[in-house]
Amino acid sequence: MSFLRVIIPVALLSLTACERSHLLRAPTLTNCATQGSPTKQHLRMVSFNIRSGLSSSMEEIGRVLEELDPDVVALQEVDVGVKRTQNVDQATVLAERLGAERIFAGAIKREGGDYGVAILSRLPVARADRIELGAPAAFEPRVAVEAGVCVNGQEINVVALHADVFPWSASANSRDLAKHLKGSVGKGVLVAGDLNETSEGDAVKAFTGLGLVDVLGHFNVGPTFPGSNNRIDYILADDALAPDATSAGAVPSAVSDHLPVFAQFDLPQLVH
């Protein structure tokens, strides 16, 4: 759900209606240094709020992702075992479609299952973590999922998040995550997701203030939420990756209420 569609009375009712999920599902982990990793010249990052497949189907969403040919995907609004979406594990279905590993972090218990965010990686995964994101008077509980992915013998830190719909709590979510990432910036960090704010909002500034670059903004990518004239989806990178971004964009699609976005990077020699 995006902030432009929030009806305040309904939102206020939801403040006490959500039970937090603590689920983390991760693959078998790899040691980047000792077990090897692919040698790649480029890295393609995709972020997509899939609206739990409620606007289309997992088949159609999978097709869009396949056409984007990503190395790593950040997904928001993902259902795992939820009644409304036929108890499907959407993160696993899409990972299998791409031949990728999946890391899923639940934010909310919903209809017998879990609803949250995921990372799909065609690269080996060295680390997987669930990050609680606090906020006062939030619309819903929020969480980020973090993965260390192996490429060229090194680890890149990838984080997926879906910030809250209220500006004050979206900012708090981002500040929590920025604080968590502070020691990693400069070593290869990508943050991707639906921040529910335009680039002038405090939720985005929490990351740019940390030194991350709004890559989509750098390439003048337009609206990502059809029905509005706003871009509220982001791929942010630190200075180990951002200078080597070669392209970025939003892809026309009707399979969700958001457009999928991508950024491609040449792979520099990361310094650890």
How would you portray this structure in words?
By secondary structure, the chain is α+β, with helices and mostly antiparallel strands. It contains seven helices and 14 strands. It has helices spanning 8-14, 32-35, 58-68, 90-98, 167-181, 202-208, 215-218; strands spanning 19-20, 24-25, 42-49, 72-80, 101-110, 113-121, 125-133, 142-151, 154-162, 189-194, 213-214, 233-237, 245-250, 261-266. The strands form two sheets. Strands 1, 2, 3, 4, 5, 6, 13 and 14 form an eight-stranded mixed beta sheet that branches. The protein has a six-stranded mixed beta sheet with strand order 7-8-9-10-12-11. The protein starts with 7 loop residues before the first helix and ends in a 6-residue tail after the last strand. The relative contact order is 0.18. The model is unreliable at 1-16 (pLDDT under 50).
Write the layout of secondary structure elements.
Layout: H1 8-14, E1 19-20, E2 24-25, H2 32-35, E3 42-49, H3 58-68, E4 72-80, H4 90-98, E5 101-110, E6 113-121, E7 125-133, E8 142-151, E9 154-162, H5 167-181, E10 189-194, H6 202-208, E11 213-214, H7 215-218, E12 233-237, E13 245-250, E14 261-266
Parallel strand pairs: 3-4, 9-10
Antiparallel strand pairs: 1-5, 2-5, 3-14, 4-6, 5-6, 7-8, 8-9, 10-12, 11-12, 13-14
Helix pairs in contact: 3-4, 5-6
